[in-house]
Amino acid sequence: MDAVSAWVLAVDFGTTNTIAAVGDANGVRTLTIDGRPVMPSAVFLNESGWIVGEAAVRFARRRLDRFERCPKRAIPDRVLFLAGHDVPVVDAITAVFRPIVHEAAQQSGGRPPAAFVVTHPATWAGSRVQILQTAAAIAARDLPGWPSPYPLAEPVAAAQRTMDIAVVPPVARLVVLDLGGGTVDVTVVDRNGAYLTVAGRPTGIDSLGGEDFDLRLARWMTAEVGAPALFDRLAMSVNPEERERAVDIRDHARLVKEQLSRQSAVPAQLPKSPPELPDNTPVLVNKLELEKLIRGGDGAEPGLIDAVDLVVKSLSTAPPGPPLAGVFLVGGSSRIPLLGTLVVERIGQVPLKHGDPTTAVADGAARHALAAVTAPAPVHYWAPPPPPPPPPRPQSSGRGGAAAAVVIGLFVILALLAVFAELAAY
Ligand SMILES: Nc1ncnc2c1ncn2[C@@H]1O[C@H](COP(=O)(O)OP(=O)(O)OP(=O)(O)O)[C@@H](O)[C@H]1O
Ligand SMILES: [Mg+2]
């Protein structure tokens, strides 16, 4: 396949969302699945197989025991507990990858991609990365000609997106701060022209992300209306209707949290939950309350302060490198304004933002793969052919040869004269 018609696929399998990007000669775009650019990473195990994405979230309503909202969090354990059984997590992830690779194959007219990239947290060991690669390979195995998926660290992928920002010079250091749904990841990435390398050790907090903020806010909202233990009681209930109410409260908390990135207060409503809540109960959430819950720092649950502390620590422990161009914020939860404020306070620089932070990893990974695939072949300069070897030199040629012949001739004559003189005397 030539560089013009080559296309690449990158998949960012996130804790909350899975996003895919396609790159070709026209650039990079987010792949839409069922018309949407973001697919929940959720899975639901039906009697007849896996249901994924939005459909899984809808199916979950009545059978939460068959549902997993964040299968990425189960990768360290290798298994998910669904419908009373341990199920290999690789099966669930394969199910998430399958509609993506098939949609990408269909949108490209059945041509295989020149490269297929799967992204992973930079802190992950090879065995976890292998699970992602295996799932991606199985998902694409019935598609003829597809290449083996190759892994790319999420911060390196995200940093690729900064290549065309003027404030990032060709030789520069970045700190990628990725605050997503399930984790915070902090990585120092050095740029040297077109090359990006991780400097020092990537760090992160595995249990800090938007999902955790939703939970804290859901608990706070029920406590605020006088029912502090309600959320946990509903979430642990054996009654599916009650567990469903807990899911509703959490979904509601997520929406409120996201709106609080744009406005200072949001009116919410809690579902009827007798005996604690007799009817739909209003609760007003303001930004300062959310910030108290997620700020972190001394003595508090881990939060944004701890994420920014990791930036400071990463910079102080990284090997010497080029000057810092900035802290690049990616991941959906990086939209929370307090994060940027804390970066300014601790680092003394306004953080870098570029494009949609939710799609940064998938988009950057597709750019990365595209750059590798379409890189111009090394230039071979034309050189004239070497001159033919000189013909073998004649044994006696030129002046030296003639002189030698004269000397030899004289010797012969003198020798003959001496012989004749000898004979005459005799
Ligand atoms: N405007 C917003 N304000 C606050 N949070 C937001 C906003 N928009 C999205 N989020 C949160 O971003 C999170 C999802 O981000 P993202 O898609 O980057 O995570 P992910 O890649 O699935 O997770 P991870 O990278 O941790 O594996 C969700 O918790 C979502 O609620
Ligand atoms: Mg992510």
From TrEMBL:
Keywords: ATP-binding, Chaperone, Membrane, Nucleotide-binding, Stress response, Transmembrane, Transmembrane helix. Pfam families: HSP70 (PF00012). Residues 260-281, 380-399 are annotated as: Disordered. SUPFAM superfamilies: Actin-like ATPase domain. It comes from the Bacteria. PROSITE patterns: HSP70_2, HSP70_3. InterPro entries: ATPase_NBD, Heat_shock_70_CS, Hsp_70_fam. The keyword Transmembrane helix applies. GO terms for molecular function: ATP binding; ATP-dependent protein folding chaperone. The chain crosses the membrane at residues 402-425. Residues 383-394 have a biased composition (Pro residues). Belongs to the heat shock protein 70 family. PANTHER family: CELL SHAPE-DETERMINING PROTEIN MREB (PTHR42749:SF1). This is Hsp70 family protein. It comes from Kibdelosporangium aridum.
